[in-house]
Amino acid sequence: MITVGSKTLEWREGLTVDVLVRELGGAEGAAFASIEDGSATGVRRRFVRRMDWPSTILEDGTKIRLITAASGG
Amino acid sequence: MADSWKPPVLDDAERERYSRQLLIPEWGEEGQVRLRNSTVLVAGLGGLGSPVCLYLAAAGVGKLVLCDYGEVELSNLNRQILYGGRDLGRLKAPVAATRLKNLNPSVSTRTITDKIDESNVAVLSSGVDIIVDCLDNFPTRLILNAQAVRQRTPYVHGGILGTGGQFAFLHPPLTPCLACLFGDQESYPAATGKSIGSTPLPVVGAIAGNIACMEALAVLRYLVLGKPTLPNRLWRTDGWDSEAEILDISRNLCCPICGTIHT
């Protein structure tokens, strides 16, 4: 299972961030993602740029937070 | 550096005003004089820019270049703490200059009420020691970032949304530039800073203060010590639940803005 915020999707081989956010939606305006990989390699957090989403393959158990943070207030 | 020359020591009033920060071992009078001789460009005088300016002025930065083309609106006042009800409808930059002068009369200011674009970015960034990004949109950020890279000036990035935000100190080739991280912003529907599409962006004032204080500290650390803050890291928080994380970031070696800078 992969989670993006409060949404979840069944994990499958070769799943990328790009495909995930397209299928789950909710990425409008997001500039980057904070990705917490699953237990297979131990928990680690990564910064993934929007431009790298199509090539960032996810492992099962990954948790993703999409981040916009564009405002200056 | 600031326009008016002062001797390279502090006077008695300065020693008193800055006495608590002078006690910090790495700071001292030398650091304070460096601060006094420094010029900082604060781009955007909203929720981030307000606390950044206040803390930099209070700390004794010599000159602040205050850049914002907007006017004070009622809906700004939950977070833009430079302004009050009597400032509604007035341009932010001159109001900010007056407020900062009242806070610390030794700080000089230059106000810019034009929108930052390709035609003026070099002039308004000229001679500054560091640039603080308190802007509300990525296209303008990327224009300012490109200028920072051209003149090899450090760029302190801050951004907020809702109850969260992020901060990073960027100075290629030591670190990525903003375009390395967010360079494709124009290729998809981006938040404008005021809204995503037609939906206004939520902002809690205290998170603006949180991220702004990180930015101000990074500026002070660079000016006093000459050291970057968290190079090659992006500090991110959701202030609502007090969660924070530090993410590794790296240069995009194909970056069209900083990719050719190696030394």
What does this structure look like?
The complex is a heterodimer of chains A (73) and B (263). Chain A is built from one helix and five strands. With 73 residues, chain A is mostly beta strands. Chain A has one domain: Beta-grasp domain (Ubiquitin-like (UB roll)). In chain A, strands 2-1-5-3-4 form a five-stranded mixed β-sheet, covered by helices on one side. In chain B, strand 4, helix 7 and strand 5 form a beta-alpha-beta unit. Chain B has one domain: NAD(P)-binding Rossmann-like Domain (Rossmann fold). With 263 residues, chain B is α/β, with parallel strands linked by helices. Classes of the chains: A mainly beta (73), B alpha/beta (263).
The tally of strands of chain A reads 5
Write down the overall mean pLDDT of chain B. 93
- Number of helical segments of chain B? 9
CATH superfamily of chain A: Beta-grasp domain
Report the CATH architecture of chain B. Answer: 3-Layer(aba) Sandwich
Flag low-confidence runs of chain B: none
- Superfamily at the CATH H level of chain B? NAD(P)-binding Rossmann-like Domain
Strand order of the largest sheet of chain A: 2-1-5-3-4
**How do the helices and strands follow one another from N- to C-terminus of chain A?**
EEHEEE
Indicate the radius of gyration of chain A in whole angstroms: 12 Å
Strand content of chain B: 15-25%
Beginning-to-end CA distance, first to last residue of chain B: 24 Å
Strand content of chain A: 25-35%
CATH fold-level topology of chain B: Rossmann fold
**Mean pLDDT score of chain A:** 86
Biggest sheet strand line-up of chain B: 3-2-1-4-5-6-9-10
Brief rundown of the structure:
Chain A has 73 residues and is mainly β. In chain A, strand 3 (32-36) and strand 4 form a beta hairpin. Chain A has one helix at residues 17-24, and strands at 2-4, 7-9, 32-36, 45-49, 63-67.
List the topology elements.
The complex is a heterodimer of chains A (73) and B (263).
Chain A: E1 2-4, E2 7-9, H1 17-24, E3 32-36, E4 45-49, E5 63-67
Parallel strand pairs in A: 1-5
Antiparallel strand pairs in A: 1-2, 3-4, 3-5
Chain B: H1 12-17, H2 19-22, H3 28-36, E1 39-43, H4 49-59, E2 63-67, H5 92-103, E3 108-112, H6 121-125, E4 130-133, H7 138-150, E5 155-161, E6 164-170, H8 178-182, E7 195-196, E8 199-200, H9 205-225, E9 233-238, E10 243-248
Parallel strand pairs in B: 1-2, 1-4, 2-3, 4-5
Antiparallel strand pairs in B: 5-6, 6-9, 7-8, 9-10
Helix pairs in contact in B: 3-9, 4-5, 4-9
